[in-house]
């Protein structure tokens, strides 16, 4: 039935008709009735196609015959009822144009004796592309004893096999002898040339031409009537095609699912095992009871909850807003059953980290407008078939919305609007050193009031210390955000372990990881905050390097608070203790627990249900594989080394927040100063318009598209690698319930 429906669809598209977008909704017919209907329609269509092909072939033959009669008649000069060649091709066989008339008359004289010498001709039609090779072959086969005349047919003829319009050439071959005639006919057959008999008598030619023309007009009428009838039949099929295809797809999906079920012992019932969410149990039982009632089944449906060895699939209930964030997490790996879902935090942290790299409230407003347009057209766009790029944008419309809102927020903190600062929250805290203020950018500024209330002071813009100040600010912010997110990841690993009642992971993984990370990078974050609060000139690079190289040395001017040196020694010792704490205890404790649990046991658990009466109900969840100490130890060692090295590399990886923010800011400045302001400096409207166009193009394609994509990918990496590897296993599989709504045309 699917094949027949595909055949109908192809026929409708070939005929240039459209299947109805809003099909006629009728009550579903029975599958058996539909099969009979489809078979009848197919038989009718095949018959119509066959008749149409035969008529079209006959029409083409008559059209070719008409052309041969018209063109070949011109080659034949009627003289004493004998055929002679016309002048067209003879010009190639004479030595000079001056002798043309004489040569022609000589040939006519020769032709008058055609009966005695046995001169004959074959006329026909051949594809224009084959004409030259055809002539050469004839020349070789007859050893030059022939005369070949040709002329373009003037009309394109439809090839019945390929259904394409083909240019053809009419030819007439003059030859002598029966043997040459046989050869020429065979060559015509080999080259696909159709030969048609043309009488020598002009009156007979005219009579046959009239007959051919009348039959052509009759065939045209018949063909048109056939096409109309076929289109009418296809249109009536088109009205129901979408509904029929949907019905057949649904039936196939049902049978495909039924194939997964097994017969019970009596061979009268079907038994199926599957997963369902706990909240849907009552709903499923209700649906099954309704189905039993509707089908008048004599056997009631038995719905029984059973234990299973394999881990259940993962299912998160999402809506239009949260679905895109869940997809971002699932692209890395589907959550293991019941482990903490990072998508909950990703909803906020992902767009925020994007905005840290993309902070410009002018660009943020542009993204916001785009997101609002997609959300406003949500109901219309969700029903349309979109291109791959547009589909991706539409799917992430709510991600784009939050990304743009956070970009506006971070842009206000950085005080950048297309790289231009504004005095939005009051006046600057700085003023010019001298009264003229002419050399303020180079001579520097002095502070005269309280700090700027929100974000970066606009007076930093264009000053000598702008870049060192912003670099320092953004770099330190990146480390603070990175350490905070990594701590969140480790805290989530604690909640995972607590949920699964895994005290080993809490004691020998969560605790040492928290100690190691915060002894080093938590301490660095504390130093950054103290330095900001106190205004100290301490060099934090020096402090962190010499904390490892010479922890007992005096800090001198780099001391930020009393008792810093002993605190550093304690933190360093804690970090060193944390590494073996992570590595050694867990594998040995697991080995001890395993040997105690299976002490004295040398037999396996019986799998047969007859002997499982005394086994506790949750035994299937405690299904143990054979314990391999070396494998567990190597796994723990890899995990510990990965965390220790990752703590350093992941913290450094968060510096991409600073790097991309700087790159975005500098690119915006370049386009603003070197394109827009430069063009505005000319007193010429054309140059100004060109400058404005280049600035708009650069902003739209480089900053709003390429930079957005770049910041998106970097934020993605920070979540997948730096954040999720602290707690997320991601080795589960999705719950995919059977649903008619999810069956697409590609599921055949």
Automatic annotation (TrEMBL):
Primary localization: membrane
Residues spanning the membrane: 352-375, 396-414, 477-495, 515-532, 567-584, 685-706
Gene Ontology molecular function: ATPase binding; proton-transporting ATPase activity, rotational mechanism
Keywords: Coiled coil, Hydrogen ion transport, Ion transport, Membrane, Transmembrane, Transmembrane helix, Transport
Any matching Pfam family: V_ATPase_I
Residue ranges the record marks as coiled coil: 31-58
Any single Gene Ontology cellular-component annotation: vacuolar proton-transporting V-type ATPase, V0 domain
Subcellular location: Membrane
Lipid bilayer topology: Multi-pass membrane protein
InterPro entries per UniProt: V-ATPase_116kDa_su (IPR002490), V-type_ATPase_116kDa_su_euka (IPR026028)
Described function: Essential component of the vacuolar proton pump (V-ATPase), a multimeric enzyme that catalyzes the translocation of protons across the membranes. Required for assembly and activity of the V-ATPase.
UniProt similarity note: Belongs to the V-ATPase 116 kDa subunit family.
Protein name: V-type proton ATPase subunit a
Protein source organism: Durio zibethinus
Protein's gene: LOC111284635
């Amino acid at each position: 039935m699917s094949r027949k429906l595909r055949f109908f669809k192809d026929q409708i598209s070939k005929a240039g008709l459209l299947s109805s977008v809003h099909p006629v909704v009728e009550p579903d017919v029975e599958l058996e009735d539909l099969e009979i209907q489809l078979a009848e329609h197919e038989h009718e269509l095949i018959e119509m196609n066959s008749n149409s092909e035969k008529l079209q072939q006959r029409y083409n033959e008559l059209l070719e015959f008409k052309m041969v009669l018209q063109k070949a008649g011109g080659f034949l000069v009627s003289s004493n009822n004998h055929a002679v060649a016309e002048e067209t091709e003879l010009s190639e066989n004479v030595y000079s144009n001056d002798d043309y008339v004489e040569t022609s008359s000589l040939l006519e004289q020769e032709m008058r004796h055609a009966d005695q010498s046995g001169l004959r001709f074959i006329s026909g039609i051949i594809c224009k592309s084959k004409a030259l090779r055809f002539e050469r072959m004839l020349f070789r086969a007859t050893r030059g004893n022939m005369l070949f005349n040709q002329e373009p047919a003037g009309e394109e003829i439809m090839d019945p096999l390929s259904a394409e319009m083909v240019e053809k050439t009419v030819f007439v071959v003059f030859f002598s002898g029966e043997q040459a005639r046989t050869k020429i006919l065979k060559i015509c057959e080999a080259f696909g040339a159709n030969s048609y008999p043309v009488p020598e008598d002009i009156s007979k030619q005219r009579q046959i031409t009239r007959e051919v023309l009348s039959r052509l007009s009759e065939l045209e009428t018949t063909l048109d009537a056939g096409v109309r009838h076929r289109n009418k039949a296809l249109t009536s099929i088109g009205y129901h095609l979408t509904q029929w295809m949907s019905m057949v797809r649904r039936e196939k999906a049902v049978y495909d699912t039924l194939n997964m079920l097994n017969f019970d012992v009596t061979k009268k019932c079907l038994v199926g095992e599957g997963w369902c969410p706990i909240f849907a149990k009552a709903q499923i039982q209700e649906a099954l009871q309704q189905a039993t009632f509707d089908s008048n089944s004599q056997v009631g449906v038995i719905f029984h909850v059973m234990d299973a060895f394999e881990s259940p699939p993962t299912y998160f209930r999402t809506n239009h807003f949260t679905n895109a964030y869940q997809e971002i997490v699932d692209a890395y790996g589907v959550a293991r059953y019941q482990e903490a879902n990072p998508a909950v935090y990703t909803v906020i942290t992902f767009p925020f980290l994007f905005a840290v790299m993309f902070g410009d409230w002018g660009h943020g407003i542009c993204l916001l407008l785009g997101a609002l347009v997609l959300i406003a057209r949500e109901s219309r766009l969700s029903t349309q078939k979109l291109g791959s790029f547009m589909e991706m944008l539409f799917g992430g419309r709510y991600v784009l919305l939050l990304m743009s809102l956070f970009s506006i927020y971070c842009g206000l903190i950085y005080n950048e609007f297309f790289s231009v600062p504004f005095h939005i929250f009051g006046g600057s805290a700085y003023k010019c050193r001298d009264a003229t203020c002419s050399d303020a950018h180079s001579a520097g500024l002095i502070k005269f009031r309280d700090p700027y209330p929100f974000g970066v002071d606009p007076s930093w813009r264009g000053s000598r210390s702008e870049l060192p100040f912003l670099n320092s600010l953004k770099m330190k912010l990146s480390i603070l955000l990175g350490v905070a997110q990594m701590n969140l990841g480790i805290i989530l690993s604690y909640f995972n372990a607590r949920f699964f009642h895994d005290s080993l992971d809490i004691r020998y993984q969560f605790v040492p990881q928290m100690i190691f990370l915060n002894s080093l990078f938590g301490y660095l974050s504390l130093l950054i905050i103290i330095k900001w609060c106190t205004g100290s000139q301490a060099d934090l690079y020096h402090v962190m390097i010499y904390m490892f190289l010479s922890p007992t040395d005096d800090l001198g001017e780099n001391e930020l608070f009393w008792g810093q040196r002993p605190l550093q020694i304690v933190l360093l010792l804690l970090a060193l203790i944390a590494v073996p704490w992570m590595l050694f205890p867990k594998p040995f404790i697991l080995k001890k627990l395993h040997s105690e649990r299976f002490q004295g046991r040398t037999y396996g658990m019986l799998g047969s249900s007859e002997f499982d009466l005394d086994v506790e109900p949750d035994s299937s969840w405690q299904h143990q594989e054979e314990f391999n100490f070396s494998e567990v130890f190597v796994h723990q060692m890899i995990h510990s080394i990965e965390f220790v090295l990752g703590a350093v590399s992941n913290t450094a990886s968060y510096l991409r927040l600073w790097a991309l923010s700087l790159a975005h800011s500098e690119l915006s400045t370049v386009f603003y100063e070197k394109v827009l302001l430069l063009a505005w400096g000319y007193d010429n409207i054309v140059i100004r318009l060109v400058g404005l166009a280049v600035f708009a193009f650069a902003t739209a394609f480089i900053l709003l598209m390429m930079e957005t994509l770049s910041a998106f990918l970097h934020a993605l990496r920070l979540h997948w690698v730096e954040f999720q590897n602290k707690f997320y296993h991601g080795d589960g599989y999705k719950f995919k319930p059977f649903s008619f709504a999810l069956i697409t045309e590609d599921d055949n």
